């Protein structure tokens, strides 16, 4: 089956649980389903950028696991956040050296929240790394990212499943949500309170966009993993992969999106 449809994939935020996106992408790719466009928020923006740059899901997984992300963070000397993300730029430059949306092999849109103007901003051209940092800047935990004269935090605050940049451009939209929420959760400290509150808000705006997706994939059981639980990355990856395979088995219509020729993502 050779589809001529333009396929868009929207990837949610979710911290380390965003590794599940890689498993889902691997499962889709194995069935020759490749996106023509990608949009992402937070962890979805990070995974999306590395994927659109031409890395395979397995390669991106290795990058994430081998990289000690927190060594690139330093304490923020301000009242607006606990940590600064400035030095993370060095890490991104290692894997995205062109630092340019135009250099990506697949078009990407990154969602971030402008805190002063209280609106979602979609980045799809110009410098790549600053918007990724802004999109994954958890409010209260990191200092806001300054782009131009505006300050940005995590895109998931207002849009944790950015389907809008794909709507009207793509013939089929696949939404992937990795930001599951536990039904009950004990609040142990301020960190868990912030995490719980942010995830509740983000989940609400994901499900309000679910009906805009032609296909919606949500790996179950991810709520048991913390936002920063990198030690469980392999389990999270496998959960995404197995869910994608199961989804394809149960929703054979998605195979209409299969393409005989692979897109320009390395095997």
From TrEMBL:
A motif (GXGXXG) lies at residues 13-18. Keywords: Hydrolase, Lipid degradation, Lipid metabolism. A motif (GXSXG) lies at residues 40-44. Residues 9-167 form the PNPLA domain. CDD domains: Pat_PNPLA6_PNPLA7_NTE1_like. GO terms for biological process: lipid catabolic process. It comes from the Bacteria. The active site is at 42 (nucleophile), 154 (proton acceptor). This is Patatin-like phospholipase family protein.
